[in-house]
Amino acid sequence: MIRNITADIYQVGECVSGASGHEAVHVYVLMNNGQPILIDCGSQLHRTGIMQALNELLAGQTPSYVLLTHSELPHAGNLAQVARQWPSIHVIVSNVMLPYIEIAPVLPLGQITALRSGVTLQVAGRTLEFVEALLKDQPGSQWIFDRQTGTLFTGDGFGYYHSAEQCGRFSDEIAGGVSVAQFQAYHCTAFRFLRWVVAERLNADLEELLARYPITTIAPIHGGALRSEIQLHVNRLQTALTNICADSYVGDN
């Protein structure tokens, strides 16, 4: 499914159903005036659908870069096919990530750049900032902020399970938006360490992030883009995190 989020940013991907509901696996595409940029490249399990959607959307354009939020297979498992189809593509990863170990050796090392969080980079003429992920399931997790559109790409953070009727929808297309319960169910299973985290500190960091960046859209890999009422959805996530950290939410063990 191909959907335009805002300006030149598109969401492609698929949903899978499970015991907790439906879970999205997305790739984000910045069309970028003929120099497309990919945020993550999807799972090898969804390769056919993702590549068909990318080819349809790009219509012959060659993506210049793929920026990986981290190396987990739903985010980087399709890199081999991306490299086969566009062998000139460059990959940008966190400097905590180990190329050829955490990601498959499908491109020359010269086409892989490792950057630390906090770096602002001109990528194919676009200003992108690599942000320390506040919610990470791997040490090399990073978030990415696009200054041009005010979009924050958050990897696993801000993900949520949804119903079959909500597949492919954005937050403003869901009645009442994404609920605390949806955030809570997902983050409890995706970040099992949270029950040992001090919620007040984590929530304060989220508030600081919101104050530092003019965020108008939040784009999680495992959920539809949050493109309305950003503060409301951050507050709902904070409530969910507080519940999980206090161990008041009973998840699967």
Could you explain the architecture of this structure?
- The chain is α/β, with parallel strands linked by helices and 253 residues long.
- The protein has a single domain, classed as 4-Layer Sandwich (Metallo-beta-lactamase, Chain A).
- It is built from six helices and twelve strands.
- The strands form two sheets. The chain has a seven-stranded mixed β-sheet, with helices on one face. A five-stranded mixed β-sheet has the order 8-9-10-11-12, with no helix packed on it.
- A hairpin with a 2-residue loop joins strand 2 (9-18) and strand 3.
- Helix 4 (180-190) crosses helix 6 (230-245).
- The longest helix is centred in the C-terminal third of the chain and has 16 residues, at 230-245.
Name the CATH homologous superfamily. Answer: Ribonuclease Z/Hydroxyacylglutathione hydrolase-like
**CATH fold group:** Metallo-beta-lactamase, Chain A
Report the sheet-strand fraction. 15-25%
So how many helices?
Answer: 6
